[in-house]
Specification:
This protein is of the alpha/beta class. It is built from six helices and eight strands; from the N terminus they run βαβαββαβαββαβα.
Length: 225
């Protein structure tokens, strides 16, 4: 792999970044530059059920020193590079110049285009939609859409529960991100198949009132396997 891959994240301990970078190193990928945006503290939504792993306690700068990856802190407004391959490990909404001038790749814990937006696992259960992971290239302002790089459904088993499924989904997400880098799969990105006409709108955080229902809904779904 001749071209350096940029990994975009937060300048803050971040579990997905930690696992992704360590997995890249384990896969023998060394040509990595990590760009960390300033961390902005926000009021967090408090869910009834946590479906993402707890955060790491190591800052990305220190992690990069350990892994011997190049590291730089950036205000996104300063980023003026073009034709870069950028993997998103952690980021909010990015300015258009990121995706108009570069290959911007995102991992979404949902099966696009049926499942887009926040709390995708919970909404997929609530609405009986596919549970999956999608790696996609961002090409415009449409949330969790663009071009498909890879997409997989999460295997479900009769003795599963919300937490075992969430763990399996997360592990698939990291593995698919690494696979994208190793195989340079973005070169084969293609349009999503929308022949069935199902393109659901991006979801917001699931309110606690609906969260109370998903364990029972999931039990019924798993009982049909």
């Amino acid at each position: 792999m001749a071209k350096k891959i940029i990994v975009l994240t937060y300048d803050h301990p971040h579990r997905k970044t930690y696992d992704f970078l360590n997995s890249l190193k384990s896969a023998g990928v060394n040509n990595i530059k990590v760009i960390a945006q300033p961390w902005i503290e926000r009021k967090n939504h408090i869910p009834l059920y946590k479906t993402r792993p707890s955060s790491s306690d190591i800052y990305p700068e220190e992690l990069c020193k350990q892994l011997e990856y190049e590291f730089e802190k950036y205000e996104v407004s300063r980023f003026d590079k073009k034709n870069e391959v950028i993997m998103i490990a952690g980021a909010g909404i990015l300015p258009p110049f990121f995706y108009t001038n570069n290959i911007l790749i995102n991992a979404h814990c949902g099966y696009i285009p049926q499942v887009r937006g926040l709390d995708s696992l919970k909404w997929a259960i609530y609405r009986n939609l596919p549970i999956g992971v999608t790696i996609h290239r961002i090409i415009d302002e449409n949330v969790d859409f663009g071009l498909m790089i890879s997409r997989k459904k999460v295997p479900l088993f009769f003795d599963d529960n919300l937490h075992t499924i969430a763990k399996r989904q997360y592990e698939m997400e990291i593995a698919m991100m690494v696979d994208t880098v190793v195989k340079e799969s973005w070169k084969n990105a293609k349009e999503f198949d929308i022949s069935d006409g199902i393109i659901n709108e991006p979801t917001r955080r699931m309110p606690n009132s609906k969260e109370k229902e998903i364990t029972k809904i999931l039990e019924l779904r798993l009982a049909q396997l």
